[in-house]
Amino acid sequence: MEHLDIIIVGGGPIGISCGLEAKKKGLTYLIIEKGPIVNSLFNYPINMQFFSSSERLEIDNIPFISSEAKPKRNEALEYYRRIVTSNQLNINLFEKVDNIQKLDTTFTVVSDKRTYTTSNIIIATGFYDLPNLINVPGEDLPKVSHYYRDPHFYASQKLAVIGASNSAVDAALECYRKGADVTLIIREPEVGQRVKYWVRPDIINRIKEGSIKVYYNSKVKEIRKDEIIVDTSEGLIHLENDFVLALTGYTPNFEFLEHLGIDLSKDEKRLPSYNQETMETNVQNLYLAGVICGGMETHKWFIENSRIHAKLILANILQKQN
């Protein structure tokens, strides 16, 4: 069995950045990704546009050229895919890590395909895999999805969108413009303040003119085959419904982190323990990179402000070897 210097769990932009840095430093490494290259970005809505400009999404100083200042999903897929292929990064796709155990200074990594050993682990898994459930009867019906891809699917349908963030607002606007009868259901008294600044006026105006219906200070209580029951400020109402997009955010896999022995804060933020200068957790030679560092504060870390993690981690690994 080949022993590697580093195994990187997660093949998103930050995992790729860690792989590039490891290769430049001459270390043996492997990126393990459970889906395609940049799996989380692949699962973004087809027409999604980033909040960040293209230069802020660059890794390893490799230019990212996009048709607009803020690139689209397909441009990001092209950019990161070309980095992986042109640099011949060592990456295993469609392989899921099932277990990681540490004995002395060696980690044993068991995937659904094979077993590896390594001296260092970098966890760069993001947070997009586990949706925040609304935990109501009917949430498991086929008409309910926690991921949004293509507005065409909802044309001429009665669609309820639950949430007030960028993903919910983007879905509501796109589906409305493709002919869906859209109703937004928002727990708060207004559309989220973090919604992209060029999109927020659009959704507010569509709501004001009545093109998109909205219920503020409201929660879905039950989802049925042909309707949903909503608890509004004026009492329970029944709305005819064909599909539900429950876009209420996502969460890191805290169970996986705890299994690795990483300490998490006891409050609702569930912040993992790590050294901000080296990205090393309380488990020696186990590192975090990217949005996973923010616990439940998934709005805290992005590609643009976590690109530096790769250099911090590799510098610490090399320092220990010298």
Number of strands: 17
End-to-end Cα distance, whole Å, is 25 Å
Strand content: 15-25%
Give the CATH superfamily of the largest domain.
FAD/NAD(P)-binding domain
Category by helix and strand content: alpha/beta
Number of continuous helical runs = 8
Write down the CATH topology of the largest domain: FAD/NAD(P)-binding domain
Q: Element order, helices and strands?
A: EHEHHEEEEEEEHEHEEEEEEHEHH
Number of domains: 2
The low-confidence parts are: none
Q: Report helical residue fraction.
A: 10-25%
Output the CATH class name of the largest domain. Alpha Beta
Description:
The protein is an alpha/beta fold. It folds into two domains: 3-130 and 250-321, FAD/NAD(P)-binding domain; 133-246, FAD/NAD(P)-binding domain (3-Layer(bba) Sandwich), CATH 3.50.50. Helices cover 23% and strands 24% of the residues. The protein has helices spanning 13-24, 39-42, 73-86, 166-177, 200-208, 254-259, 303-306, 309-321; strands spanning 3-9, 29-32, 91-92, 97-103, 106-111, 115-123, 130-131, 144-145, 158-162, 181-185, 213-215, 219-223, 227-232, 235-240, 243-246, 250-251, 286-288. Strands 1, 2, 3, 4, 5, 6 and 17 form a seven-stranded mixed beta sheet that branches. Strands 8-15-9-10-11 form a five-stranded parallel beta sheet, covered by helices on one side. The chain has a three-stranded antiparallel beta sheet with strand order 12-13-14, with no helix packed on it. Helix 1 (13-24) runs parallel beside helix 8 (309-321). The longest helix has 14 residues, at 73-86. The protein is elongated. The two termini are 25 Å apart.
